[in-house]
Amino acid sequence: MKLFGKLLLTALLLTMASTAMAGSLERIQENGILTLGVSEGVAGFSAPDSNGRWTGFDVDMGRAVAAAVLKDQDAIKFVPLASKQKIVAVSSGQVDLVSRTTTWTMKRDGKQGVDFTVVVFYDGQGFMVKKDLGVTKGAELDGASVAVVSGTTSELNVADFARMNNIKLETVVFDSKKEAFNAYIAGRTDAFTTDVSQLASLRTSAPNPADHVILSETFSKEPLAPYVRHGDNQWKDLVTWVLYGLIEAEEKGITQANVLEMKKNSNDPVVKRMLGASGDIGSFINLDNDWLIRAIQAVGNYGEIYNRHFGPDTAMNIPRGHNDLWTRGGMLYAMPIR
């Protein structure tokens, strides 16, 4: 009986472990909804428009996943998350995926119960100051007060910056970017610090954007990546390859407008595999072979998404830089889809 009990317990534990590891994809498909963690509102990345529809770069990454998995880019429940909530929300199972300007760090990856997927935006931290302050570089902020958001990498980064430059900075901590930015605008602090892309986003909402300067230096590495619950390997793999597919699509010239034509007429064996004209790559991530076609039809390739929210025709107008393809001197490089 003791042996039988041990075998029964072992079988039960294995069953529980298998259920925990494989849970997200099956549950999402069964419920017909993807629960997506986003920011509380950062223009360009994730914010509701005048009709209440969520839009932005991070939102489109989530829509691509929903289209691939559920065949409907709108089958999403959006959950706005404060910075201090964003990690625990996915590690606890409150959301299936977080696509929300989050830096991939060793502590978050190794100790906080999440797994990152693909770096979709290479950023760095900077300072915003009022133009009439007359400051041109961060080291000139000695003795200044700086607004910073709690629960972000910005707190540690700005402390490291002060030590490295042998200056003193008074950090004033706020719970949200909106609170921190409004405090800076109101003159409660001399400067505001966060990722440069978010500084550019927030500056567009200032009463007089031209009165504010983003200093040219960046003093940290901020690789931003969507993430899932740690240990859910099947779900992590799926999200990872959907995002890589968007990057590879840009490299191969596959767009929202021509994706079906490319499937039908391309002689490129990589394109044929990607779009399901040959092979069976969908089975590698437990989807059909049109998964990437649906994602691209929903939101376009990576370049189309970037230009829609940060391109030269937008208020933010952030040059591609590191976020360009590796073939054009950037850092975007998709793993081989084969």
UniProtKB/TrEMBL annotation:
<dbReference type="InterPro" id="IPR001638">
    <property type="entry name" value="Solute-binding_3/MltF_N"/>
</dbReference>
<protein>
    <submittedName>
        <fullName>Amino acid ABC transporter substrate-binding protein</fullName>
    </submittedName>
</protein>
<dbReference type="Pfam" id="PF00497">
    <property type="entry name" value="SBP_bac_3"/>
</dbReference>
<comment type="similarity">
    <text>Belongs to the bacterial solute-binding protein 3 family.</text>
</comment>
<dbReference type="InterPro" id="IPR051455">
    <property type="entry name" value="Bact_solute-bind_prot3"/>
</dbReference>
<keyword id="KW-0732">Signal</keyword>
<dbReference type="InterPro" id="IPR018313">
    <property type="entry name" value="SBP_3_CS"/>
</dbReference>
<feature type="domain" description="Solute-binding protein family 3/N-terminal">
    <location>
        <begin position="33"/>
        <end position="262"/>
    </location>
</feature>
<keyword id="KW-0813">Transport</keyword>
<feature type="signal peptide">
    <location>
        <begin position="1"/>
        <end position="22"/>
    </location>
</feature>
